[in-house]
Design goal:
The protein is mainly beta and about 450 residues long. The protein contains nine helices and 30 strands.
Length: about 450
């Protein structure tokens, strides 16, 4: 369950985050150990929060497939690929977010490929959990257990977090039992970490280790501000750099899973980039943060809302954004049909536009919105000649990047880097996960082939 990318440990590790804190005399929770012993303490807050943090253990089977080289098939015969199954067990953490319905949030990588998920509460009770839905791109999963005398953690507005806010990470590191560590918010809006497809992390120095994944990052009021997800460390251990998914982003995704059983991502319909000093100088820009719009897709939510190439998006619903990656992650966590107010700069003047997000899982999409190397192709959900689901190339422009890749009209994409593709949503997800060279498995009539894109 571990994935290490550029010294970034993603698995049952963790991160944490928090929201602004209120230490005034009017705070709902006292910050002293007892009334008689006026020693500053987080114990009263933790007494309320920790029953909502659970331990998760999983059992499952990992299946690996390896194609048999032609030379070996010639000598030994047999199937085209070898299939190996290996049982595994894993540990992680989770957070009860709805006591009446038994909803628990954790990381997708904690329960990925699990056949059985066991949830253990702080009072020792155990439940077999049902997996209601996952979103691998944001590393969120929603579980459900029997709602028997549960306690949930209240949610904070993670958009109100500030660097320097105190936070507390709660989880089950190394399977030793519930553990609490404290720290501060070290940074906000972290992206480019190659953890997942959509990154907008809270960074914290609260100590996090393997097994904390899916646990809670709370503020000093005991409110959930983030879901611990990953750590940065040479050996997979804590070095004071951890990451958490903001609570607002988690809630947007979970609400979609509850309603639809899956995440139906919103789509703005732009291609853009971060603003750096070179771009600011070339375009004579007076800002150094925000999302620069390179191109607006025809008939997209952005075009309908009045966004133009050259605009700089600086806020979503009045909340400032620092980069295109942050914009991308926030848009992707909003559901299709969501209405947003964007603040943009156009030729030095600030203005507001209203947009209604499209559906990233729509039946037909311009391929360049999914991967630059596919520009010139139009994709749609379809089937192979044998009736297997896939993504069909319904149109393709001559001499376009997609045509130069080797794609042809009528091709059906059924795999990306040996991962099955049966819908546009799966294609988008697997391409977002892929790094560097990508191998597309194509069905062209009765033939099967691979096309490599870079």
């Amino acid at each position: 369950m571990n994935k290490v990318t550029n010294r970034l440990a993603v698995a049952c590790c963790v991160a944490a985050a928090s929201m602004s804190i209120n230490l005034s005399a009017n705070a709902a929770i006292p910050f002293f150990s007892t009334d008689k012993n006026q020693v500053p303490s987080l114990a009263p807050m933790l007494q309320e929060a920790t029953p909502a943090i659970v331990s998760i253990s999983v059992e499952g089977t990992q299946v690996s497939r390896q194609r048999v080289p032609e030379m070996f098939k010639h000598f030994f015969g047999g199937p085209n690929e070898q299939v190996q199954e290996k049982p595994f067990r894993g540990l992680g953490s989770g957070v009860i977010i709805d006591a009446k319905k038994g909803y628990i949030v954790t990381n997708n990588h904690v329960i990925d490929n699990a056949d059985e998920i066991t949830v253990t509460l702080t009072d020792g009770r155990e439940f077999i959990a049902k997996n209601l839905g996952v979103d691998p791109q944001s590393d969120i999963a929603l579980l459900q257990i029997e709602p028997e005398a549960l306690k949930a953690v209240p949610l904070a507005d993670s958009d109100e977090l500030r660097v320097g806010d105190f936070v507390v990470a709660i989880g089950n590191p190394f399977g030793i039992g519930q553990t609490v560590t404290s720290g501060i918010v070290s940074a906000l809006g972290r992206s480019g970490l190659n953890i997942g497809g959509y990154e907008d992390f809270i960074q914290t120095d609260a100590a996090i280790n393997r097994g904390n994944s899916g646990g809670a990052l709370v503020n000093l009021k005991g409110e959930l501000v983030g879901i611990n997800t990953a750590i940065f460390g040479p050996n997979g251990g804590n070095v004071g750099i951890g990451f958490a998914i903001p609570a607002n982003m988690m809630k947007n995704l979970v609400d979609q899973i509850i309603e639809f059983g899956e995440v139906r991502r919103g789509l703005l319909g732009i291609i853009g980039q971060d603003i750096d000093s070179g771009l600011a100088e070339a375009m004579n820009l007076k800002v150094n943060k925000g999302a620069f719009v390179n191109e607006v897709s025809a008939e997209s939510a952005a075009e309908k809302g009045g966004i133009e190439a050259g605009d700089i998006i600086t806020e979503i619903d009045g909340k400032a954004i620092d980069s295109f990656q942050e914009l991308r992650a926030k848009i992707a966590s909003r559901g299709a049909g969501s209405k947003l107010e964007l603040t943009i700069l156009r030729q030095g003047k600030s203005m507001k536009v209203n947009v209604t997000l499209g559906d990233a899982t729509q039946a037909t999409v311009a391929a360049k919105e999914i991967h630059p190397a596919l520009e010139g192709a139009v994709l749609a959900n379809g089937e192979t000649e044998k009736g297997d689901s896939g993504v069909i190339i319904s149109e393709i422009e001559a001499r376009s990047p997609a045509a130069r890749t080797g794609l042809q009209e009528g091709d059906v994409i059924i795999g990306v880097n040996r991962k099955r593709v049966d819908t546009l949503a799966k294609l988008r997800s697997h391409l977002d996960e892929a790094k560097g060279v990508v191998a597309l498995n194509i069905k062209r009539g009765p033939a099967s082939l691979y096309l490599v894109i870079r």
